[in-house]
Design brief:
Elements: H1 2-56, H2 64-72, E1 78-82, E2 87-91, H3 100-114, E3 118-121, E4 127-132, H4 136-202, H5 207-229, E5 237-239, H6 241-255, E6 260-265, E7 273-275, H7 277-294, E8 299-307, E9 311-318, H8 346-358, E10 361-368, E11 372-380
Parallel strand pairs: 6-8
Antiparallel strand pairs: 1-2, 1-4, 3-4, 5-7, 8-9, 9-11, 10-11
């Protein structure tokens, strides 16, 4: 578990670092925006004074400096109006192909909402009003923090995905290692049990008993084989799912209460699809065991095998206590269980076997309280 904890701590540290960097950038960006904004306001004050002096000048006055100040404004959009709200001058307004008057009126309305006008007292009875907005560069800087937040969110998603994948990889390695070690540990007593079976035969023990013991030993061998395959890609071969279902039902019939009734709707035509038999049996066993537990050892288990155009469908229905709708997806999560002594691995392994190794689907088809549950497996042909 230490590698997983290291990944979690590294993820948290990187997340805090990223948040810190973005916070600093946002603060400085806002600071720069306010500084540049004030600079443009100051420029407009200077421009207004120059424009006022220009209007007050006489023919003999040298106005070259005033003209230069006014002409130097090549970035800040500006509109000058009179007391009647008529536009008498505009600067740095982008008309493009639009109607000039409509564009000016629209810009004037926008400017009135941004900044209060600079009032020029041309005479005792005559005023002019300078309206302005901000330059394109300042406007871009205004939206830069929003773009940065979007980039930050994308960055977080990427970081989360990378570390989540790494963490899952570590978990998978851990589970694979435990499974392989379990298979190895089971192998030793199995070899010994095979020897004891031969001794029982030589002692003239009831052959039926010996045969059943041998079947259980064979089943343990299958279980050990399944565990040894976890973490490696299984081999798919042509198999008849109907035969596999029948074999699994027969195995359970001998080992479960007579109060459990199995009903199997066998298709008339023989089917063959690509399956890994050991893993597919594992899925069936998990679903049947869960059904038996849900029915508390008494009820019906109905199994159907349906042949579709592109896939086969296996339906396993019990008459148990049912599963609440809110848990229909959660029951397939590793570690989730409703049993007092369950590990919560059976259905998660079943889902992994069907979806990852057979490119199929497994889900709760329907479930009602105290009526039963139907699981459906879809496997492409």
């Amino acid at each position: 578990m230490k590698p997983i904890l290291r990944f979690i701590k590294a993820k948290q540290a990187l997340l805090l670092l990223a948040i810190g960097i973005v916070a600093v950038i946002l603060i400085y960006t806002y600071h720069f925006f306010k500084v540049f904004q004030q600079q443009e306001i100051d420029k407009m004050d200077i421009l207004a004074k120059a424009y006022f002096q220009f209007n007050k000048s006489k023919p003999e006055d040298d106005i070259s400096l005033l003209v230069e100040i006014i002409e130097q404004n090549n970035s800040i959009p500006m509109i000058v109006t009179n007391d009647s709200n008529q536009i008498i001058l505009d600067q740095n307004i982008d008309y493009k192909d639009a109607d000039k008057n409509e564009t000016l009126l629209s810009k004037l309305k926008e400017m009135k909402g941004l900044n209060p006008p600079i009032i020029l007292n041309i005479s005792k009875t005559k005023n002019q009003y300078i309206y302005y907005s901000y330059s394109k560069n300042l406007t871009k800087l205004k939206y830069y923090p929003m773009a940065l937040v979007v980039i930050f969110i994308v960055f977080l998603i990427i970081i989360y995905s990378v570390f989540n994948a790494s963490s899952n990889s570590e978990k998978n390695k851990l589970w694979s290692g435990m499974a392989k070690e379990t298979a190895h540990q089971i192998g030793t007593p199995l070899s010994s049990l095979l020897g004891w079976v031969e001794i029982l035969r030589s002692e003239n023990v009831n052959p039926d008993f010996v045969n059943e013991i041998e079947k259980d030993i064979d089943h343990l061998n299958v279980i050990a084989n399944r565990f040894s395959k976890i973490g490696s890609k299984p081999t798919l071969e042509h198999n008849n799912p109907s035969d596999i279902i029948e074999e699994t039902i027969q195995y359970f019939k001998v080992r479960t209460s007579k109060s459990i009734v199995f009903n199997y709707n066998k298709p008339l035509l023989s089917l063959e699809i690509m399956l890994n038999k050991d893993l597919f049996v594992w899925v069936l066993e998990n679903l049947i065991k869960n059904a038996i537990d849900a029915m508390q050892g008494k009820g019906n288990i109905d199994i159907q095998l349906l042949d579709g155009k592109t896939e086969i469908r296996v339906m396993i229905t019990d008459t148990g206590k049912g599963i609440p709708k809110k848990l229909h997806k959660k029951i397939f999560e590793p570690g989730f269980t409703t049993k007092e002594r369950g590990w919560g691995l059976g259905l998660s392994l079943a889902k992994r076997i069907i979806t990852k190794y057979h490119d199929g689907k497994i889900f709760v088809k329907q479930s009602q309280k105290h009526t039963g549950t139907s699981f459906q497996i879809n496997i492409p042909k």
